[in-house]
Amino acid sequence: xxxxxxxxxxxxxxxxxxxxxxxxxxxxxxxxxxxxxxxxxxxxxxxxxxxxxxxxxxxxxxxxxxxxxxxxxxxxxxxxxxxxxxxxxxxxxxxxxxxxxxxxxxxxxxxxxxxxxxxxxxxxxxxxxxxxxxxxxxxxxxxxxxxxxxxxxxxxxxxxxxxxxxxxxxxxxxxxxxxxxxxxxxxxxxx
Length: 191
What we know:
Elements: E1 10-14, H1 22-25, E2 30-33, H2 38-52, E3 56-65, E4 73-81, E5 103-105, E6 111-115, H3 125-129, E7 134-136, H4 139-149, E8 153-162, H5 167-190
Parallel strand pairs: 1-2, 1-3, 3-8, 4-6, 6-7
Antiparallel strand pairs: 3-7, 4-5, 4-8
């Protein structure tokens, strides 16, 4: 995948305006809000890709960390499904009758994200066994949609909270810092 973005059509995807508002985004390019969760993300991203036909889908957002030493903005190297559980038909994280491992890689170095439609409130041995660093609620849908449509993706997450603490209150406080830090990364790499 080309790592040069000058003159590329970049579609930036953010879940909600609390992570980056349209006023903060300004004239940096095309921004779409996916909504929260995998279904909203698939619907909104698919339509945006069909309309915009980007060279790259860039995800910016917040994430919870399982690692106490992760801070600030991290890049995601791969994402796995964390809440799909169809046992005994297949292992947790896999979708029955699909022929792949349901893991998607960006082609960039970084952390492992487990994505699902729930907050992770406590330690989970499955996450530890799968070497997960951070959790979110949209990235698996972004990666899977991009893979299906043949569009490269890249993701940067701001660590807004930590698994095992008061997620809702901590996220509300942490997400207020997300936009400033994520926009710094965007401006450095893509403008």
